[in-house]
Amino acid sequence: MAAALFSGISLYLSGKREERRWRRDALLNTYQRFIELSFERSFKTVLGIRVRRGIEPGDLDDLRQEESELHLEYDSLFTRIRLLGNGDVVHASETLHTSDQELVQLGLRSDAPTTDSDSDTFEMSASEIAKRKRPCLTPQGQLSDSSRQAPIDDVFWGTSATE
């Protein structure tokens, strides 16, 4: 009887460890791709400014379409982060998203050729946005603890995910 009870408890604890590992790994992979997409979107905005400036040949509509496709995946990952991440990770992701949206507005939302002043404004804004983004790129180990703090009920065990 005691052996069966011990075996059941051991199985329960093993399942909890596996679930935590899955949550941590899923969140880490999601956040990594989220950051990669952030860099890709920023690159599209820089290309947009360069095209508008006449420095580089290209089509703004193509760049906007490419950025829009990246944004679709980005939003999907953002939802997953909200489901799996703790408050600090979600906040870092929201900050990153807001910063990326500001760059998209500056770089891709106008067809007007850029002036020296526009380019200077973009460079200053991009620099400020990069400073705001930096802490989001290194959430200081928050991802490793987020599986314990995920705001999702544990559907497998019927208990809170914060246990």
Describe what this molecule looks like in 3D.
This protein has about 160 residues and is an all-alpha fold. It has one domain (about 20-150). It contains 5 helices and no strands. It has helices at about 1-55, 60-85, 85-110, 115-135, 140-150. Helix 3 packs antiparallel against helix 4 (about 115-135). The longest helix has about 50 residues, at about 1-55. It is elongated, with a radius of gyration of 21 Å. The protein starts with a helix and ends in a 14-residue tail after the last helix. The model is unreliable at about 145-163 (pLDDT under 50).
In summary, what is this structure?
By secondary structure, the chain is an all-alpha fold. The chain has helices at 2-53, 60-84, 87-108, 116-137, 142-149.
Using brief descriptors, characterize the structure shown.
disordered C terminus
- Strand percent estimate: under 5%
Annotation field: number of helices: 5
Q: Ranges with pLDDT <50 over ≥5 residues?
A: 144-163
Please tell me the total number of domains.
Answer: 1
What is the strand tally?
Answer: 0
The description of the largest β-sheet is:
none
Specify the helix fraction band.
Answer: over 70%
The secondary-structure element order is: HHHHH
Oligomer: single chain
Shape: elongated
Distance between the ends? 27 Å
Q: How confident overall, as mean pLDDT?
A: 78
Rg result: 21 Å
Structural class: mainly alpha
